[in-house]
Design brief:
The protein has 8 helices and 10 strands. It is globular. It folds into 2 domains: 117 residues, Alpha-Beta Barrel (N-terminal domain of MutM-like DNA repair proteins), CATH 3.20.190; 130 residues, Helicase, Ruva Protein, domain 3, CATH 1.10.8.50. Helix content is 32%, strand content 20%. With 268 residues, the protein is α+β, with helices and mostly antiparallel strands. The protein starts with a helix and ends in a 6-residue tail after the last strand. Helix 1 runs parallel beside helix 7 and helix 6 packs across helix 7. The relative contact order is 0.13.
Length: 268
């Protein structure tokens, strides 16, 4: 599932490509046809994002809300591409760019009330400069749930998904199974500041970077030189492999509906 950094990156890209221009909007898949017809020809005002939720603003009464879910994605082209595939839920284009949205969990059109309804359910987004981490701290320190569960709860912190959950917990040497109520202020702010740094960095180009170069193998370094999109993790999807830091075997277990990965030595 795309995490908060991806959504902010898509918001930035759409802002640069379409803001201030009149756009053509269609739904080749037909599942957003009536809504597309409503906003077709309107001026694309701006974008905003909160956690895993993207908003395309046309005016106060017409805001496209998109949640990519597990399989949703955007393909953005320079110029006018060929005829869209039938799987494209939403196509937005102007004279210079075209954006195709496929397989989102949510693609809907609403106004300010709908926007407020979505935002009310979400916790603070670490990428936002005005985010209030105290709101997340209060929820975590009242909870008997594990910190691994809580970091996946978008009403606690918006934008952290399965990759960042595993990597942030590892980077902070925190046992993922400790209860939220045992997390002290100091540890919480270490987690929060790490999430701010990692998600903000990832939003620049949509890439997740969590591993310090000194922990990359020679093969990893060669791969990163060959493939610009190569990404590496400390623990995520490394079940059964040696920890990059201590060489213990990485473990995995399903937590909050997704597979969690951790090092039993570094995260005692």
């Amino acid at each position: 599932m795309p995490e908060g950094h991806s959504i902010r990156h898509f918001a930035n890209v759409h802002q640069e490509a379409f803001a201030g221009s009149a756009v053509q909007v269609t739904s080749p898949q037909k599942r957003f046809a009536n809504e597309a017809e409503t906003i077709n020809g309107m001026t694309f005002e701006r974008t905003s994002a909160h956690g895993k939720h993207l908003f395309l603003h046309f005016d106060e009464d017409n805001i496209v809300h998109i949640h990519l879910g597990l399989y949703g994605w955007f393909k953005i082209f320079r110029g006018q591409p060929t005829e869209p595939k039938d799987s494209v839920r939403l196509r937005i284009s102007n004279e210079k760019f075209t954006s195709d949205l496929t397989a989102p969990t949510k693609c809907e059109l609403f106004g300010q009330e709908g926007l407020a309804r979505v935002l009310k359910k979400l916790g603070p987004d670490p990428i936002h400069e005005d985010a209030d981490p105290m709101l997340a701290l209060a929820k975590i320190q009242k909870s008997n749930k594990s910190i691994a569960e809580l970091l996946m709860d978008q009403s606690v912190i918006a934008g952290i998904g399965n990759v960042y959950r595993a990597e942030i917990l590892f980077r902070q040497s925190l046992n993922p199974f400790v209860a939220g109520k045992t997390i002290g202020d100091r540890m919480f702010f270490r987690l929060w500041l790490d999430s701010v740094a990692l998600l903000t960095d990832g939003a620049q180009d949509g890439m997740i970077r969590t591993v310090h170069p000194r922990y990359l193998s020679r093969d990893d370094i060669e791969m990163s030189k060959k493939y610009a999109s190569a990404q590496f993790s400390y623990v995520y999807k490394r079940n059964g492999k040696p920890c990059r830091v201590c060489r213990s075997t990485i473990k995995s277990r399903e937590v909050a509906g997704r597979m969690l990965y951790w090092c039993p030595t570094c995260q005692t």
